[in-house]
Amino acid sequence: MSTPLTLAASRRPDGTAVLAVTGEIDMSNAPALEAGVARSAGDGVLVVDLSGVDYLDSAGLSVLFAHAERIRVVANPLIAPVLIVSGLTEVTAVEGMGPGSDLDEDEL
């Protein structure tokens, strides 16, 4: 059974917009992620906190790539390989991947 997607928008004390995402991101709910990112981004940088995400497919990656120039991503070790292999780590800042975030493609 999949974990439902939840989105929670907030701001850090410095005013930076944050979109905390939990659950699974797939083609069934990628449009909700897209809407959440678009709504939360505003004019500045948006931190997309994926630390509570336990599954991310290509539909979710497409949303992140579409906004790569204006987002920073907080990830977790579970989805780190997907972010690395997809190349998202090359086009936007990704933090919090923990041990294994220095993996190269031969190790994945």
TrEMBL record:
Q: Which PROSITE patterns does the record match to this protein?
A: STAS
Q: Which domain of life is it from?
A: Bacteria
List the Pfam families hit by this protein, alphabetically: STAS
Q: Which residues form the STAS domain?
A: 6-108
Q: What protein name is recorded for this chain?
A: Anti-anti-sigma factor
